[in-house]
Amino acid sequence: MTAPLLEIDTVSKRFPLKATLADKVAARLAGRRAGGAVHAVTDVSLTVDRGEVVGIVGESGCGKSTLGRIVSGIYAPTEGTVLLDGKPIATGREDHVNKLTTRVQMIHQDPFASLNPRMKVGETISEGPRTHGIVSASEVTDRTRALLEQVGLRGDYADRLPHQFSGGQRQRIAIARALAMQPDLLVLDEAVASLDVSIQAQVLNLFLDLRRDLGLTALFISHDLSVVRHVCDRVAIMYLGRVVELASAERLYADPKHPYTQALFASVPTLGTGRQDFRPIKGEIPSPIDPPPGCAFHPRCPFAGPRCRAEIPRLTEAGSGRTVACHLNDGGVGQEAAA
Amino acid sequence: MSAALDIQGLTTRFDTRGGSVTAVDNVSFSVDRGRIMGLVGESGSGKSVTGFSILGLIDEPGRVTDGRVMVEDTDLRSLSPDHLRSMRGRKVSMVFQDPMMTLNPVLRIGDQMAMAVRVHEPMSKTRALERARDALGTVGIPSPEERLAAYPHQLSGGMRQRVAIATALLHRPAVIIADEPTTALDVSIQGQILAEVRRLADETHTAIVWITHDLAVVSSLADDICVMYAGKIVERGTAEEVIGRPRHPYTRGLLDSVPGQHAPGSHLPQIPGSTPQLSHLPSGCPFRNRCPRATDVCATTPPLARFGDHTALCHHPMETT
Using 50, 70 and 90 to split pLDDT, how confident is the model at A337? Predict the structure, then answer.
């Protein structure tokens, strides 16, 4: 068994908040320390094997995008390490980071913001490989055409500007730009979220084709449970900075164990006939500046007990490679979540 | 039972440099009291412009050129601007995708809601605040009394949208037009709001037009569905009929392209091409360039195929399966 391509090991990311003078005075009066931090990602460990697509699912503020940016080398983690092929991606040593991050490519949500509007798409696609010496000057034109064709566009579109393309076509260009770097790992951050459903299907099909042809490895970050089910092998559910459940897509969707995962599935409207009986999660997502003690989900959890308010649940094995961070599942393999 | 909202032949054009485009093309539908009509379409289908046209909120270079918009017994299009303004917020109100389009960021929630009450009904501020507090309670806002003193920035996105919905409810309007009101919200918050809206329609008998691109949301919320494409309603029927037995090939294609109902990793059925530009529509059926069932006859204006109350604007509607 080979080592996983990507190893995220107990990674945390905190963004310090700048305390204003008023905050400092108020804090001094209240006997607290001024200035807190946004706990964006806390103690996340995750591996991605070669050729695997792992989904990261959660609502706003759960830390899924921050995690994607750490893996891409955009942010350095506050604690923990990220290894790609056994070598650190994000150590803060700038020279090192520059070389390695070409091996991780990110595809962003908004194809209107992620393409330079004044650059011909051919230049956009070829800029990275030229800068990093991946292609020679004589090959650039042919390679760019080939990449455009690979993502289902015409080779001669290379001379056009982004405004001449629709949202779906732009997302294809963003994918071509990422592929041009011959990355080991793709990070897709809500890559189909802003597309209409008919266009979304086209881009998902393209992703599935490329995955089959190129053996892509990817982190697929999304809030859309049905999209994730369709393209991912394994899925991590995040809540308030932590992974609360991690399992194969098949098992997770068939039998969610964590009360948050269960509640999330119950709130999603599904395509079907007849009125749906919504069983929404009560309450709101707490602030990541001041997360609740113990299990972060306990204020909204129908099963919460005294232990949940005091003790942070650890991710523990729940059988067949599934891990769950919930005291209900602490009993071990095969135990049902209390209903 | 008479319809709370009855629209006939609504047409809205925009005069652009490239010529006049018809964003809303001869749209007709009606919504009875207490029912939710889902108006579904992709970007550029004209669903939001339809919503704005109903309330007379179309700005230059757009204009509503034709049609009738009956709210209970009043034709909104026949009213003077002042009279129309007195109807908005009282008889028919709107909820936008971004609640900050409704809320004033520098006024307390209570103050702006009381203002919205008193603009149509003169009463003391104390009584107006009570009305506002009750409305906040109706949409499931916890401790509404305290929220009256809050500013919009102190509330989460989901809470702001509830305040916007509560504001729309202040005068118990006959009709609420809701334009993608949960699109920007997280699923767990969306679930809460959908549950509240369903309950509100049942309890207050308000007729609701729910404009969205999300088929899953309308299929679980709406009683009736209109599907829009290139400014036209191409299919109309009960939610059960439209989702369960779609007749228009576009609706069929849209429903098929939703992942989650297909084997994971399999190719999703996709509609080829992209939504046409309104200035360059093909003759006849606007969908024919992308339609798997299209034939030569589709270059002529499609007829309205009827299946009971279920209609589709199509030469070759789908057979039942």
Answer: very low
